[in-house]
Amino acid sequence: MEITDFFLGNALNAVDVKGRVSLPADFRAVVERRGRAAVRAGQEATDKTFVYIGDHERHSCLQAYDSTYQQFLFEGLRKRVEKGGEDELAALDDAQQGAFGAMLTVAFDGAGRMVLPQSLRGLMGIGDLAFFIGAGQTFQIWDPKTFLAEQADNVRACRMLKYMLGEKGITL
């Protein structure tokens, strides 16, 4: 199934002491629409009440996606391994372990409330605020201060994040 519904935009949400945070409504809607599209395409019904979250391969943030992205990711790994010329089965096994082994399944309720596990929050330094930003087929969850430091070249997103922080009366 070709993925044609993308995670767009951003949100700054509070994280409570237990790690509860709201998945932005726009992102929840994408998960639901993708799940319905998968069923229409003849795939098994996907659970539209969870996302997979793990550390990003290149950035100091969390990467998240829904179940429809898994097959796309697998196919990308398989193609990458085929080009490598090594023992394909062993290389694919290693690539899948790296891509899927670090991901945790995180459920969310109808209002989008979910709990970010302490292990993930601690790994990326996410405290009482989480900055969600769409990345097309996936989305990312950042500590706002880390985002501003590491993504300074992303002027538009940094400007939006600074505005949202100001709206909440927060200075970093």
From TrEMBL:
Domain of life: Bacteria
PROSITE patterns per the UniProt record, alphabetical: SPOVT_ABRB
The keyword Lyase is assigned to this record: no
Segments forming domain SpoVT-AbrB: 103-146
InterPro entries, sorted: MraZ, MraZ_C, MraZ_dom, MraZ_N, MraZ_sf, SpoVT-AbrB_dom, SpoVT-AbrB_sf
Keyword Transcription: yes
Keywords: Cytoplasm, DNA-binding, Repeat, Transcription, Transcription regulation
PANTHER family cross-referenced by the UniProt entry: TRANSCRIPTIONAL REGULATOR MRAZ (PTHR34701:SF1)
Protein name per the record: Transcriptional regulator MraZ
Organism: Sphingomonas naphthae
